[in-house]
Amino acid sequence: MNTYKDLDIYKISFSLFLKTHPFSLKLPNYELYELGSQLRRSSNSVNTNIVEGYGRRSYKNDFIKFLVYSEASGLETLSHLEKIVALYPQLSLEAEELAKDYELLGGKIHSFTEYVRTSWRS
Q1: CA dihedral (116, 106, 50, 62) positive or negative
Q2: What's the whole-number mean pLDDT along residues 18-29?
Q3: According to the CATH classification, is domain 4-119 in 1.20.1440.60?
Q4: What are the extents of the domains in the chain?
Q5: Contact between 7 and 54 (Cβ < 8 Å)
Q6: Which residues form the signal peptide (predicted)?
């Protein structure tokens, strides 16, 4: 692996961010800077923490810490999507699809974190 762009979790999280951002703009105008902004920021954080952790990969514990942050941001994103499903039924199908993808990504981030914890050489 030569760069963070080689990580599957990076590729998936970036792709999900590119889907989540325009989805958030479908919320009513009064939600664009409330729930919409929170959704955009947490989705971005999933991806950004992977990148920042990779940048600190020479320090195994730092790498793990940022992967944990990334997984936590994924859970935050799931929470925002759950709220959208409950509040905006017209967006529920798309939000549920995104949520499924974030759940799968969370599992992959968790597995990768365990790999780094047990097998990564700093």
Answers
A1: negative
A2: 97
A3: yes
A4: 4-119
A5: yes
A6: none
